[in-house]
Amino acid sequence: MGTVAALTEETESSYSKSASSLPSLVPAHRKPASSCSLALGPRRRHRDPVALLLQCAAQLTMKQLLQLQAALLTNPPPASAVDPNVLAVKLIGASADRGNVRHAALVFSRLPSPNVFAWNAVLKVHAQHNLWVHTLRYFEQLLLESGAAGGAAPDEYTFTSVLKACAGLVAADGGEKAHSLVLKLGFQSNLFIQNSLVDMYFKFGRPWIARRLFEEMSVRDVVSWNTLVTGYCLCGDVHGARQVFDRMGEKSLISWSAMIAGYARLGDVRAARELFDAMPERNVASWNVMISAYAQNEKFMESIQLFRQMQQVGGLLPNDVTLVSVLSACAHLGALDLGRWIDMFIKRKKMELNLFLGNALADMYAKCGCIAEARAVFDEMAERDVVSWTVLISGLAMHGHADEALDGFYNMLEHGIKPNDVTFMGILSACTHSGLVDPGMKYFRMMTEEFKIVPKVEHYGCVVDLLSRAGRLDEAEDFINSMRVAPNVIVWGGLLGGCQIYKDIIRGERVVQRILELDPEHSGSYVYLANLYALTGRLEDSAHCRLRMRHNKVVKTPGCSWIEVDNMVHEFFMGDRTHPQSDKIYSMIRWLSYRMKLAGYNPNVSLVTHCVDEEEKEDALSTHSEKLAVAFGLISTGEGTTIRVVKNLRVCNDCHDAMKLISQIVEREIILRDRSRFHHFKDGLCSCKDYW
DNA sequence: CCGGAGATTG
């Protein structure tokens, strides 16, 4: 008795804490105050826990649920009064709604004889959390028990979860078995099951079967049609999806969202936006679709702009999904102020740091140069998955903290999290940035041999980079020739970079030839050849080479840099004059050039391009995007303020040298993140120690 | 006492 009283006391304080946030969530007349209060007055303190659970499960926190459960265990109601299965179904569903699947499973496991409702509850919980293997395991168990006397037997509700799990796993054999069981049990005319089957066959990549099942349905609802639209998008047939979309009668918000997402996945952001603008009404998810459509297609500025519009024009509050997309955009742009604002928003709204949100937040901090904050978020998270650890490891790698990145890796292994291909990219790049050649090779072998991860081109590229930057060009070339996959331009490009650094002209020419075989329009090779000829005095050949590049209309990723000032992200392209303050920016650059020349800096001395297939140097040297961004930062922030710039490509040697000098001249810290890492310029030096 | 379709991270 004493225990129960103590629990209720505790409950009181935790409930009153959250009570202050209730008015915004629940309309006043629906406030659960009188019927659900655990302890609003002394007389209600010992309210029946059974009634409480049955009526108010949705309003309780996880802690309160656990307290209720403890009360029930300490002081169980008579079995004749209430079926334990009924309570279990409530507890299972409520725990899962609060993200606690483990506890839901625990409750289920303690049930002496689960009925079909309990089985369905536990199946649904696991299917909804994408724990498909578990779902199917429970289902197999259920099938075993249904054979025994008194065991529960699957019903029509069972199959929605099971089919979803088969679809998620792309387990075609299991899916077909489940399908025949549906037929055997006579459930095939259930609309929910039919819709699930259509969805499943689309996910199996068999749209024709899905379509046939759809055609055979005697009754279809809007979900059936939406499933068809989604399914065709999934199979890459966005035109087929559009035909269905145009043909269907009543459309729901989901129909529009599905179609927009379909266009976005194919990279047609314009078509996506047209549909978004044409929607008759929108909810948060509709905005989320479009915000993520921009983010997925690297239109981060547009993504953020739409995020603002959603609040100002749409009058909607972002939810966790919104924030995850926007945080990703912030991470790419280095938009730290907005990122911090979102962090505050999360805290203000007391939002739970779930895996997605925590990972996105930690990544934002890491990519905005705040590795300590990234780590703090990581530490704060209740659970961590392979993405969380990869964010941390890659973040440390980007900052040049190779040792800590490797520590993180072993820590991750100790926590029983299996690394994947992205994790190893973080590890390998950590080694590359610190010149840890032999360890890098060790981790590459570990990846393939111990973890059986098939290396992607990026991994090969990283290893070649690792060897080449350290000057081990023979090994790098041997490594390329020993690759099981045909090397591509990126891989050869890594070796070419090494040839440039170590001025290995003969090997360089050989490599350039291999590259031009693969890609006759490869601009980096032309730049390299031109520089090579210039170096060896063959100026005519050099000029000819550049001309050839122009004739071929070589298209390169344009160099682009971003800087955030007063909550606004400003974007600069190479030689950009479109910024409203362009005049001031360019006079700042002229002033900087003058000061740098005084300090002995001569951009024309360096003919060696560091970056291979990236930005062309030429006359645009002084107007590379990162210089524009830094110049803008200098004129628009106060003395001594740190300048933070993000660039989409690798910084070239000349800009790197220039940044070092600029940091000295203006006495500012400049933090530049390029495609592969952070450069922290201070007092004329860079944190990368000129090795990157 | 229960189910299906859309939006999220490295």
Strand content: under 5%
Assembly state of the chains shown: single chain
Shape verdict: elongated
Question: How would you name the CATH homologous superfamily of the domain at 412-551?
Answer: Tetratricopeptide repeat domain
Computed structural class? mainly alpha
CATH domain class name of the domain at 412-551: Mainly Alpha
> Kindly, what is the distance between the CA atoms of the first and last residues, rounded to a whole number of angstroms?
67 Å
Poorly predicted runs are 1-44, 605-620
State the strand order across the main sheet.
2-1-3-4-5-6
| Rg from Cα | 30 Å
Number of helices: 36
| The CATH architecture of the domain at 412-551 | Alpha Horseshoe
CATH topology of the domain at 412-551: Serine Threonine Protein Phosphatase 5, Tetratricopeptide repeat
Task: Give the fraction of residues assigned to helices.
Answer: 55-70%
The major sheet is characterized as: 6 strands, mixed
Please provide the count of β strands: 6
Return the average pLDDT rounded to an integer.
86
Keywords: Repeat
PPR repeats: 221-255, 283-317, 385-419
Domain DYW: 600-692
GO molecular function, one term: RNA binding
Write the layout of secondary structure elements.
Elements: H1 2-19, H2 22-25, H3 33-36, H4 49-56, H5 62-74, H6 84-97, H7 101-109, H8 116-128, H9 132-147, H10 156-169, H11 172-185, H12 191-203, H13 207-216, H14 222-234, H15 238-247, H16 253-265, H17 269-278, H18 284-296, H19 300-312, H20 320-333, H21 336-348, H22 355-367, H23 371-380, H24 386-398, H25 402-414, H26 421-434, H27 437-450, H28 457-469, H29 473-482, H30 489-501, H31 505-518, H32 523-535, H33 539-551, E1 560-565, E2 568-573, H34 582-598, H35 625-636, E3 643-647, H36 653-665, E4 670-673, E5 678-682, E6 685-686
Parallel strand pairs: 3-4
Antiparallel strand pairs: 1-2, 1-3, 4-5, 5-6
Helix pairs in contact: 1-5, 4-5, 6-7, 6-8, 7-8, 8-9, 8-10, 9-10, 10-11, 10-12, 11-12, 12-13, 12-14, 13-14, 14-15, 14-16, 15-16, 16-17, 16-18, 17-18, 18-19, 18-20, 19-20, 20-21, 20-22, 22-23, 22-24, 23-24, 24-25, 24-26, 25-26, 26-27, 26-28, 27-28, 28-29, 28-30, 29-30, 30-31, 31-32, 32-33, ...
The structure holds one DNA strand of 10 nucleotides.
